[in-house]
Amino acid sequence: MPRVNRTAVLSLLIVSSSVFLLFQLYYYRKYVSKPGPHILSQTGHLTANDVQWQTVKKFLALAQRFRLPLFLADTAALTLLSQDALRQRDRLVREPHCSFLCTGRPITSFALHANLWKYDPGLLLAAQQKGFDLLELRGEDPRLASLDTLSGEEIPLHFLFRLHGYVVQVVFLYERSGNYLWHGALRLKANMDRNFAPFKLLDYGRHPGAYDRPELVLTVLDGLDIRIPHNISRFLNEQQHAHFLECRYRDARNFLQLYPDDSSPEALDFRRKVKSLLHLAARTLSRLDVPFWLSSGTCLGWFRQCSIISYSRDVDIGIFIVDFRADMVAAFRDAGLSLKHKFGKTETWCGTEARRLRAAKSSSTSSRGSRCAGRSFWS
Fold first, then answer.
1. Strands 180-183 and 209-211: what pairing?
2. From the centroid of its chain, how far is CA 164?
3. Which residues lie across from 342 on neighbouring strands?
C-alpha cells in the first residue's frame, strides 16, 4: 500500500480552505454587507425572492441616478400594502427582507411622470452596462392626433428592463388636456422579441389607460426608498377601470366636413357650460366613489364628432343602479344642482339608472331597461 504524503495533503487542504474563505469574504462584501435588508435566506443560499429584490434594487439605483420621477404601480405589491393585507402578512411572512416587492410574479411595475422627465438615452446605455436587457416600446403621440398634419414623431410608452429572468416594467404617464394622466397600449413591432417577457402578466399595456393624478408619498419598502400612491385603494380601483378610448378624430373630421359644426356665440357658450357641468358632476360622483359614463346624445356627440352636440340642449350621464346612494341628492344639491323631478323607485332592480344634466344646471336620469323608468331631473 503506497504511503500518503502528509505534506502534500496538508498543502491541498490549506489551499482549498483559503479559496473557500476568499469566496465567503467576496460574497459577504458583495451582498450581505450592503446597506438595506440582508438578502440571504435562512439556508444561506440565494432564493428567487433574493434575486428579484436585487433586480429591483439595482433598477432603483439606476432610476435615482437619472432622476426618474417614478412611483410603484405594481398591483400585486400595492395590494399587499393595504391595512388588511398587512395584518395577514405579519402572520404569514417567512422572508422579511422582501415582504412586498417580491410578490411571486416575475414582473414589478413602476409608473413614470413623463412630463417631469426629459428623455435621456444615457439611461438605456447605463442599464445595459449594469447587465439589464432592454425593450423600448414607442408609439404615436395622441395629443397630436386632432391636428391635420402630424409630425410623425413617436414617444416612449413602455420600458422593459430584464435581469436574471425578472422584468421591471416602466409605464410612461403623459398629461392630457383634461387634466388627467394617460398611458398608451403596449404593441410589439414585427422585429421585436415576443419572448422577452411574459406579456400576458403585465399590469399595463393591454390597452391605453387614463388616471387621475395621484398624490404620492415616499416610504421604505423592503429597505428601499420608493414612492407610492397615498390612496392605494383608489388607485387600484382606477387601475381596474382605466381602459381609455381615444376619440376617432379622422371620422370626426369627415363628419364635420359634411355637417359643419355650429360656431355661433350661443353654441360656443353651450359647449362651455356642458364641459363645466360635466366636471362638476364628475367631481361630485368621484367623492361618492360612484362610477359613471357618458350616455345618449352626449355619448353620441363624443363618438361622432369628438365634441358636444350644440342643439341637444342637455347632458346625459349614466350610473349602475347598484351604485345608487341615497346621499347623492344631497351631494348634488351641495354642488349647486337641486333635484327637480324623480321617477321610478330604487328598489326596482333593473340594472341601471342614467342621470341627465340639463345645460342650464339641470339633469335627468333614465334607465337602460324599458320597464324601469327611474329618472331624475336636476336644476
1. antiparallel
2. 25
3. 376
